[in-house]
């Protein structure tokens, strides 16, 4: 989407950003014609995730496209919120901690609390260690309908449901 303004500008207030962001999403949805031949995200992967629920037997042809658009909007909003966090700290590079902080600022992202590690302030006032339970593997993705540990994504293929630690 070349030629469009960025979703968020340096120094934007969160409420101003959200108002403009969602108005832009509505305007875009009303004007655009979806490109079914070139979706922004892989539809096969979206279908695979949708089918990971054992109660889902059939998926309508247009359902993955709707999820694709929802994922695009979700990613854009979280990225822009994380940019506001980085910008408030006078940085231009998004970090994992920016995403975590952006997510903790809104109740609507509470479903991500167990997925996105939270950083706790250290004695110096800086964010330091990522909070994680050492005894439990960290689920960071889904592969073949089963949650995968962080180590599985690095090449060591072990599933959380396998019970292997």
From TrEMBL:
Chief location category: nucleus
Keyword Nucleus on entry: yes
GO CC, alphabetical: CCAAT-binding factor complex
Superkingdom classification of source: Eukaryota
Keyword Oxidoreductase: no
Subcellular location: Nucleus
Pfam family, one: CBFD_NFYB_HMF
Start and end residues of each stretch annotated as Disordered: 120-165
Any one GO molecular-function label of the UniProt entry: protein heterodimerization activity
Domain Transcription factor CBF/NF-Y/archaeal histone, chain residue ranges per copy: 41-103
UniProt keywords, alphabetically: DNA-binding, Nucleus, Transcription, Transcription regulation
InterPro entries per record: CBFA_NFYB_domain (IPR003958), Histone-fold (IPR009072), Transcr_DNA_Rep_Reg (IPR050568)
PANTHER family: HISTONE-LIKE TRANSCRIPTION FACTOR CCAAT-RELATED, NUCLEAR TRANSCRIPTION FACTOR Y SUBUNIT GAMMA
Family to which the UniProt record says this protein belongs: Belongs to the NFYC/HAP5 subunit family.
Protein's UniProt name: Histone-fold-containing protein
Source species of the chain: Cylindrobasidium torrendii FP15055 ss-10
